[in-house]
Specification:
Distance between the termini: 49 Å
Bound molecules: adenosine-5'-triphosphate, magnesium ion
Radius of gyration: 25 Å
Strand content: 15-25%
Oligomer: single chain
Largest sheet: 11 strands, mixed
């Protein structure tokens, strides 16, 4: 007997078949798809020029940037007759998917995905670096924490993007620390020291890529500081040495042959750069994490491989989901002053990046997520998965401002901030430390800049400036913790 669900099931099977046929060159829907794609492309609005990163971050008081990079179609894909199913019009990326209606008629569904920056096949690594990464270097030198992730399906260009960025960071950072304003007059040496380490995380295991894959342990010490015990850290003195070490690390990385990529990276690779300001002893070391994530290979793809690969894929997907939750929760905290649990202890990767997610941190953090996608129609399901993963990470600010909280400086007006500075320090001049900033803007000042401003006031020592910085941040952290405890208590009450 034919039931409704039976009919529906058969229709879906037919639609699937039609979709699979598309991959053959003689497919009956191919011409339709091609013509419709051309029409859609012509009707789309042009790309907007790339906005200034700082403008967006300041205006929306956000710390997280979400970008999409669509790679070019490869020659072998063009030869195989693959079509370009993605259109990039910054800040949108449109995914055009062929669907077959139940009556057998094909249609194209086009969905726009908005991010902060949408890069297309014509944009090279240098443009990406100049637009979104170069502004992270001053933050790191001021004691902040920068993190860059490349996410996406296997073969979508994560390693290509991150390797390019790493090389550009190496050149830019070393040139900057050796620029005349950063040299110590007496010695002619830079006031900054730069250290590099490189790890790989495979499930719950960590390996040192600078020390022939020696196993490492990521641990949280009694002070809550994350230690990578036994990791080799090398001091960098030249661009050439930096580039050479990146090559060494890449050669030790675990790669495997997958359907899409002969040298697919099956691990998360983390390049950690630490910068030390030798003139300001009180300033925390800056950190830059460049993370090349393992491919988000789907279960269907891995089922053709052994059970080990399946386990590996499960572990990768779990850590990618934890990462997404952590980034989003941290973003909501910044933009909505709203407490949400940040589950960074759930995976080794997020534990290592604790500083970027921690509620009780006084460090300035910036995170850039670059999602990589393939434009090929044969990869459309994977690309949609990536777009769906990435889109929710970008939390836009709420339209109404968070209510002013007398205990939380991040919600104070400029006037209230000035009043607090006056009443809290005999030496710090509010006109120098906070000439026009609101509480939120002052709290978003990197530690190095905060201390440098305080040191301009007569009578302020470096230690005194640091204590003053921590005093302000203690208020912010106490207010966040109080809010968290209230939320937990409220949730408990609702539950019982
Ligand atoms: N934007 C691009 N321009 C030119 N070639 C690219 C681009 N992106 C990727 N490629 C090429 O595509 C191939 C696959 O890229 P890559 O190794 O970066 O993929 P991946 O996302 O790291 O995959 P996996 O998850 O399997 O490690 C490489 O040969 C790379 O050189
Ligand atoms: Mg890779």
């Amino acid at each position: 007997m034919k039931t409704d669900s039976n009919i529906e099931f058969n229709e879906v099977i037919n639609a699937r078949k039609a979709f699979t046929q598309l991959e053959g060159s003689g497919d009956k829907y191919r011409e339709f798809y091609k013509t419709e794609l051309e029409k859609k492309n012509n009707a789309l609005p042009p790309s907007k020029p790339f906005a200034q990163v700082e403008e967006i971050l300041q205006k929306e008081s956000r710390d997280i940037m979400v970008c999409l990079r669509t790679r070019p179609l490869f020659e072998h894909e063009v030869e195989a007759g693959n079509l370009k199913a993605l259109s990039v019009r910054n800040p949108f990326t449109y995914a055009h998917k062929l669907e077959v209606r139940f009556n057998g008629m094909p249609k194209i569904s086009s969905l726009p995905y908005e991010v902060d920056y949408a890069f297309g096949p014509e944009h090279d690594n240098k443009i990406i670096y100049d637009t979104i990464i170069s502004s992270l270097i001053p933050l790191v030198l001021q004691g902040g924490i920068a993190t860059t992730f490349t996410y996406g399906q296997t073969g979508s260009g994560k390693t290509y993007t991150l390797t390019g960025i790493q090389e550009l960071v190496a050149r830019d950072l070393i040139n900057r620390i050796n620029s005349p304003e950063n040299l110590v007059k007496e010695t002619g040496q830079s006031k900054f020291r730069v250290f590099l380490s490189f790890f790989e995380i495979l499930g719950s295991q960590t390996f040192d890529l600078f020390n022939e894959r020696e196993p490492l342990k990521i641990l949280e010490d009694t002070f809550g500081v994350i230690q990578v015990s036994g990791a080799k850290e090398v001091e960098i003195t030249s661009v050439e040495q930096f580039l050479e070490l990146l090559k060494v690390a890449a050669s030790y990385r675990k790669t495997e042959n997958t359907f899409k990529n002969e040298t697919s990276s099956r691990s998360h690779a983390i390049c950690r750069i630490r910068t030390q300001n030798t003139l300001l002893q009180q300033l925390e070391d800056g950190k830059f994490f460049l993370v090349d994530l393992a491919g988000s290979e789907r279960h269907d793809d891995s089922k053709f491989h052994g059970s080990d690969r399946l386990k590996e894929t499960k572990a990768i997907n779990k850590s990618l989901m934890t990462l997404k939750e952590c980034i989003r929760a941290r973003c909501l905290l910044e933009t909505h002053q709203q407490y949400i649990h940040v589950p960074y202890r759930t995976s080794k990767l997020t534990l290592l990046l604790k500083d970027a997610f921690e509620l009780a941190t006084s460090r300035q953090c910036r995170t850039v997520v670059i999602a990589n996608v393939s434009p090929s129609n044969t990869d459309i399901e994977h690309s949609l998965n990536t777009l769906r993963y990435t889109a929710p990470i970008r939390v836009t600010p709420q339209s109404t401002k968070p209510e002013p909280n007398p205990n939380n400086p991040a919600t104070w007006t400029h006037e209230k901030m000035v009043q607090w500075i006056k009443s809290s320090s005999k030496f710090v001049d509010p006109k120098v430390l906070c000439p026009a900033e609101t509480g939120l803007q002052l709290c978003r000042l990197p530690e190095g800049e905060f201390i440098a401003r305080c040191l301009k006031c007569p009578g302020v020592t470096e230690k005194g400036a640091k204590i003053f910085y921590l005093r302000l941040w203690k208020l912010v952290i106490d207010a966040r913790t109080k809010r968290r405890n209230e939320t937990i208590a409220k949730n408990k009450k609702n539950f019982t």
